[in-house]
From TrEMBL:
Domain MATH: 1-132
Pfam families, per database record: BTB, MATH_2
Metabolic or biological pathway: Protein modification; protein ubiquitination
Lineage, top ranks: Eukaryota, Viridiplantae, Streptophyta, Embryophyta, Tracheophyta
Example GO BP: protein ubiquitination
Domain BTB, residue spans: 171-239
UniProt name for this protein: BTB/POZ and MATH domain-containing protein 2-like
């Protein structure tokens, strides 16, 4: 670094360009310190070296976090010396005297500290690393950001509909599958599967409130899993079943998904089955064939 002493305050050395997030960047290093246009009144003993991250891509506006790190040459590890708490906007759309295309710190480290017995400076060489994280999401308005400070719990819609499935007294349709019965709600079934809308109601009316339908060619465990997916959009845990038993349930659930035109469930089952080399099915599993 001593070789670059006397370069002058405000003058810098550029690193080689590197790409992050589809944009080109470089590091500016100011061995004699950074000047912001005002008269530099710092004492020589208190001078700091400075480092800035510069956006090289033209006609771009990028939000990014950055973290300047110095490499300890004795251990081979680096430590953070300056990082941003919030993303900065790097703008090369309208380059003005204000360097909105370059952000950093004019107090990376005291020069006197570096030039003493420092593990960072070896053979007049200093290694500066910069971790750059480009924010791809569009910037939200300030009032929206303030609202986001309120902690919002995750959606419980799936679990709520799962509880609805358990409310037998509120059900208006009963399915009999072999020796087991399952209670459900016509409106939920109709929304989730077009088959329940297209086909006319079949079965016996019980007490003018509930319809009774017999389901053929399906095991109770499979129909139970089908109902669980209809209400929660997830597959049940299938606890207590070994690998082969789970695979068999998924195979039959794939047939049920095809029967009731539930394409998302069908694709999920195809994905599970096609992870096994011997699981390619005879039901148009395009995931296996591809």
């Amino acid at each position: 670094m001593a070789l670059h002493r006397g370069l002058g305050v405000g003058n810098f050395i550029r690193s080689a360009a590197f790409d992050v997030g589809g944009y080109s960047w470089c590091i500016r290093f100011y061995p004699d310190g950074y000047a912001d246009g005002e008269e530099d009144s710092r004492d020589d003993d208190d001078d700091n070296v400075a480092a800035f991250l510069e956006l090289l891509t033209e006609d771009a506006e990028v939000r990014a976090h950055y973290d300047f790190r110095l490499l300890d040459r004795s251990t081979g590890t680096s430590s953070s010396v300056f990082s941003t708490a919030a993303p900065q906007v790097f703008d090369t759309l309208d380059v003005r005297e204000d360097n909105y295309f370059a952000w950093g710190t004019d107090e990376l480290m005291e020069r006197s500290e570096l030039e003493k017995a420092s593990a960072y400076l070896v053979d007049d060489g200093l290694v500066i690393e910069c971790d750059v994280t480009v924010i791809m999401e569009p910037q939200v308005e300030e009032n929206t950001m303030a609202a986001s400070d309120v902690e919002v719990p995750p959606s419980d819609l799936s679990s709520s509909f799962g509880k609805l499935l358990e409310m037998e007294e509120r059900a208006d349709v009963i399915f009999k599958v072999e020796d087991e019965v399952f209670h459900a709600h016509k409106v939920v079934l109709a929304v989730r599967s077009p088959i329940f809308v297209a086909e006319p109601d079949e079965g016996l009316i019980l007490d003018k409130k509930k319809e009774f339908i017999v389901v053929e060619d399906m095991q109770p465990a499979v129909f139970k899993a089908l109902l669980h997916f209809i209400y929660t959009d997830t597959l049940p845990a299938m606890e207590g079943l070994d690998g082969d038993e789970k695979k068999e349930i998924v195979k039959q659930l794939l047939v049920a998904a095809d029967r009731y035109a539930m394409n998302r469930l069908k694709l999920i089952c195809e994905g599970i089955l096609c992870k096994s080399l011997d699981a390619c099915c005879d039901h148009g599993c395009h995931a296996c064939s591809s």
